Inverse folding.
């Protein structure tokens, strides 16, 4: 499958590398075509490419959005939205505000009654946004078995049921998330909930001194 | 022990009843001394009393605060804060706003960079506020063994370490919370995190069709 990964930070590179290792053709996208991190990432990899955000979107069947939450709106507004028509966008981003210290708060524009997930869907109405993976640390995103033998929950949301099923399958086949542990929270507006718990996640990380954990819902 | 429970709703009554059953003397407090729900609750119980908020606070060694989050500030402002001096307040409340439908959002006054827990501590600086139990459903608050044999996590926070230890002990002895599953999130400001996850909790409840669940942090 051709997959685009928008964002060259640690999360983007971790996801892009895991996808290449799973046999996909991956283009990592950044603001400029000659981004040094993207070029370094491509080196010595098979089926790994670097391009602009638009090139990566155009190249891809599925797009992972791994841009810093603070810059997503201006980034998308600068792109040709036609590149995203009918494509699945897996939105991994979080609208965190670290300016007031740790643990972070939510960027006020996305706090409580609005969310990045919804905004992405609104900005790109012809794409199919699915919020996923934003509630775990990057290394765990791409290998669920690193924690509790893969027995812990992932939460996803989005408006398009078929797109959510495709994402579930992708995460299961490539990143070892057990389908029965993926909870569909509903439409993309539920991103408010999934983004809203991330400051708590940081607090737990600080309390238990590791980011390598997740939530298991028990009844 | 003499325990005051402020609030006569389902949460307050559930906690008050469980405390009486555990052999404590409990006064349930409400705005007026002749509150019908409080009087009905007292009936046929040993060591159960009804009174005003101030009477219940004065009576108590430890106070459970179970008032609707929207009314806590005005309620506390109307009370003589001297009644709370040196007392532990276990703040169970949540600042939920159901006016925009389900799942709820957080009341704007307590969203993101402020919290009820902090406000209670600020309004009653001589009390020792400990946020606890606000992340589970009422029946589970008072009997942790109803879910997964008691193996799931409770989160607490507060500025006073000794008060937090007293609360841990109380919850363990009376409500069967295993001490090793109680995670101290830090000072009372962490209430922002613990209150911030409650809309997500409601979303999970809707997705899995039961309120009788909790989070187990797995590594």
């Amino acid at each position: 499958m051709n997959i685009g990964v928008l964002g060259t930070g640690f999360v983007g590179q971790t996801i892009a590398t895991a996808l290449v290792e799973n046999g996909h053709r991956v283009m990592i996208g950044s603001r400029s075509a000659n981004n040094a991190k993207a070029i370094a990432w491509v080196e010595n990899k098979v089926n790994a490419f670097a391009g602009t955000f638009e090139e990566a979107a155009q190249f891809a069947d599925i797009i992972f959005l791994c841009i810093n939450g603070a810059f997503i709106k201006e980034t998308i507004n600068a792109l040709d939205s036609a590149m995203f028509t009918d494509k699945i966008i897996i939105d991994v981003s979080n609208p965190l505000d670290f300016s007031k210290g740790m643990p972070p708060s939510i960027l006020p524009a996305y706090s409580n009654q609005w969310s990045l997930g919804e905004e992405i869907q609104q900005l790109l109405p012809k794409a199919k946004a699915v919020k996923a993976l934003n509630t775990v640390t990057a290394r765990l995103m791409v290998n669920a078995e690193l924690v509790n033998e893969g027995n812990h929950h992932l939460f996803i949301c989005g408006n398009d049921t078929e797109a959510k099923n495709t994402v579930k399958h992708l995460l299961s086949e490539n990143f070892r998330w057990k389908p029965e542990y993926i909870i569909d929270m509903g439409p993309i507006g539920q991103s408010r909930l999934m983004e809203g718990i991330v400051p708590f996640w940081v607090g737990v990380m600080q309390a238990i001194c590791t980011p390598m954990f997740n939530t298991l819902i028990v009844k």
